Amino acid sequence: MTNRYVYGVMNDDPVEFETDAVGGADRVYTVSHRRLNAVVSDIDTTSPEETDEDAQRHDDVLREIMERDGGRAIVPMQFGMAFESDRALKNVLRGARPAFRRALNDVEGRIELGVKIVREEDAEVDDDAVEEAVADKLESIAAQSVPNDLFSDRLVLNRSYLVEREDREAFDDAVAELEEQYDDLMFRYTGPFAPYSFVDVKIGAQQ
Amino acid sequence: MAASSGRRPDSSSLAEVLDRILDKGVVIDVWARVSVVGIELLTIEARVVVASVDTFLHYAEEIAKIEQATAEGDLEDLEELEVEPRPESSPQSAE
Known about the structure:
- Chain B: This is Gas vesicle protein A.
- The structure holds two protein chains of two kinds.
- Chain A folds into two domains: 3-107, no CATH class; 110-193, ACT domain (Alpha-Beta Plaits).
- Helices cover 30% and strands 32% of the residues of chain A.
- Chain A is built from five helices and eleven strands.
- The longest helix of chain B is centred in the middle third of the chain and has 19 residues, at 53-71.
- The chains are: A alpha+beta, B alpha+beta.
């Protein structure tokens, strides 16, 4: 297995640990270029199949890293970023170094949390008023937020928030207060996730 | 200060993980993942995390420069392209 499956990029010390990795490997380690470390495991393909199990493993590895040493920063990859070789991977770390460094700087010390607010089937809800109340409460605590797709008309709000680790409890409390205030609405409060929604970096090759 | 609510986010939802992992995060196209020799990389950062509209416009301008440089095949200039650190100010979404 000479291909490398990449979970994310960090700039702290290298790591190595045993776990159930994507594609059947049992060890996660780092491939480095200067101070950037790609968190990888061995794999025998450059286009891994999307399965629920492997998606979960990808996420579990990122969570493991995020919980290390009191909370490390990692720039998460989308599922499926497998490289042909260490050389190809290092070439990307080198070529896109400024982008990785800026993204790491953006997410340092922060986690992603998700809030979905759902109405009952026939409930009359003033979406704008809810949105404003939620923004008043949460935006001042969060470092940043982005809207997600309102894929159902029962969804009143669907956002991801980037929150400083130290503000996490204040954010929990603010969500709880909103839930109390709107006890006829269902709140889905999820995370913490690696900051997937707050790194928008695309790297291509000139052909 | 009121006692903590004890409210915790749910970390066990596979659907929530899939929403993110299949659609977000860093994307590297297959040519950059399999090729090595003499390859020119092209990086596009949408910079979701911006502190103000001014900063966002600044990034938008930089991205336009990247696109222009790409169109002209003038990739060497990209090495020099640096974006100023964003000022710390009130959070704003980059919608």
